[in-house]
Design a protein that fits this description.
Helix content: 40-55%
Distance between the termini: 63 Å
Oligomer: single chain
Shape: globular
Number of helices: 16
Number of strands: 15
CATH class of the largest domain: Alpha Beta
Strand content: 5-15%
CATH architecture of the largest domain: Alpha-Beta Barrel
Length: 462
């Protein structure tokens, strides 16, 4: 059996990401690779991040894989569709079976199967891929009864098998198979763009919280984690093999379990492998002890989710956090010398100008070192999508658009919120400035943004 794993993300094609230049290795594929390797399943990986679509096509034409497994997310779906179409129209690849997995496949399974995928892996993929590969090795064809898969029968009927039970013991998983890719490309990209290199690590899967805009298509609402000792050992191996300047923990809520955090801090101190690291977490899972442990164990930056400065909107999102607690933890982290970042989302259903003003006030009071502002969009399968699906205004072409392009009827037009993003940035940056020409420019920009919001508001009502 000839198996190829890939993911169809091309950094060179993404102008925004090229400016940001913070590429991360495809950990999902590397976990599958490690699991298959542990069970003696031979395979290859084609990491597309620093490659090109033409190079990927050449690799596929050369290797003619029996099975090609492709990771699909919101950013890569359009490229994956192009890849599927090319494979299905290339005569030399008529026997290649396409397997799709990742967060984008569960709620688009029927469309993807009609487009040319042979089988969809829904949910956690390691055990499912192993069963698929073992069956194919024995029978020369794909199975139809494996848990966690969706396929289309000969009559064109889409069949969903039972959902795959999630791994109970995360310690069963081997660490990601980083040696299968050229990780130095990532280190060099970071070093060149930012002056330091970084490696991403995952310690947990799932998130038990219920934020309405967040997709839980792969791991559901679970919380499962590897032991602090195994994580410390992975860090030790990474340090010895790659010696990165920093670590990025990709977990949704790094400080969710305080006992785990205490043991993690103790383990890396004992192994003398403290490396500066960055995390994401929630304010309600932080306190002074947590911040002290983070600081002592090497945390240099913490991202604390808020999404809004309006408690009304936070509650509408089912965020289950108090905005005052978010401010408190941002300020406390900074007091301990940890950089603090936060996320803001505008355009959520029900949001008004008054709510945006509260968000601006929230950012001024908490004064995070970093913040990002996005406009809400409904990802298929989320509670937000269910809430607004009858209010969707855009009729997008599935082949060339993603959920990011979907607009829905809000209090104001999407253009209003685009100007609102500028207003937030200008007002917050103006608050930071002293008496200067820069302050005058920001004030002018803020006024123009606010005028345009008012104009859009009037036009939208009419």
């Amino acid at each position: 059996m000839n198996l190829l794993l890939t993911h169809a993300y091309f950094l060179e094609e993404d102008e925004k990401e090229k400016l940001i230049m913070k590429p991360y290795v495809p950990l999902g594929i590397l976990y599958i690779s490690a699991y298959l390797e542990e069970h003696a399943i031979e395979h290859a990986i084609f990491d597309t991040t620093f490659s090109s679509f033409d190079a990927l096509k050449k690799q596929i034409e050369t290797s003619k894989p029996d099975l090609i497994a492709i990771y699909v997310n919101l950013m890569t779906r359009i490229n994956v569709l192009k890849l599927i179409k090319w494979i299905r129209t290339t005569e030399a690849l008529c026997n290649t079976k396409i397997i799709l997995g990742g967060p984008e496949v569960k709620h688009h399974a029927e469309d993807l199967l009609h487009y040319g995928a042979a089988i969809i892996v829904s949910g956690e993929a390691e055990q499912t891929m192993l069963e698929i590969c073992n069956y194919y090795k024995q029978h020369g064809q794909l199975p139809v009864t494996v848990d966690g898969t969706i396929y289309m029968d000969a009559e064109g009927k889409v069949i969903a098998n039972a959902e795959r039970k999630l791994l109970k013991d995360m310690n069963q998983l081997p660490p990601p198979n980083r040696k299968k890719i050229n990780l130095q490309n990532y280190l060099n990209a970071w070093k060149t763009a930012h002056g330091y290199s970084t490696v991403s690590i995952s310690t947990m899967r799932g998130c038990p919280y219920t934020c309405k805009w967040c997709s839980r298509a792969v791991y559901g609402g679970t919380y499962r984690r590897r032991s602090p000792q195994l994580v410390a050992e992975e860090i030790k191996q990474i340090k010895e093999a790659y010696n990165p300047d920093r670590i990025w923990f990709v977990d949704d809520v790094f400080t969710i379990n305080h006992k785990w955090l205490r043991e993690f801090a103790a383990a890396i101190k004992e192994k003398q492998i403290i490396i500066p690291y960055e995390i994401i977490t929630r304010a309600d899972r932080m306190d002074e002890e947590v911040i002290r442990l983070l600081k002592e164990s090497g945390c240099y930056r913490v991202w604390i989710g808020a999404e809004s400065g309006s408690q009304k909107i936070i509650d509408a999102m089912d965020r289950r956090v108090e905005v005052t607690k978010v401010r408190e933890m941002i300020l406390l982290a900074k007091k301990y010398g940890i950089e603090a970042g936060t996320f803001i989302m505008l355009g959520y259903p029900g949001e008004t100008t008054a709510d945006i003003k509260e968000t601006i006030n929230h950012l001024k009071l908490s004064s995070p070192d970093y913040y990002t502002v996005t406009i809400a969009y409904p990802i298929k399968g989320t509670a937000l999508h269910e809430e607004v699906k009858d209010k969707i205004l855009t009729n997008t072409n599935w082949e060339i658009h993603t959920d990011r392009d979907v607009d829905f009827k809000r209090n104001y037009s999407k253009r209003f919120y685009e100007y609102a993003v500028r207003w937030v940035y200008n007002e917050v940056e103006l608050h930071k400035q002293g008496s200067s020409l820069r302050k005058i420019k920001l004030m002018a920009k803020s006024i123009v943004s606010r005028w345009m919001m008012m104009y859009e508001q009037i036009m939208y009502v009419e």
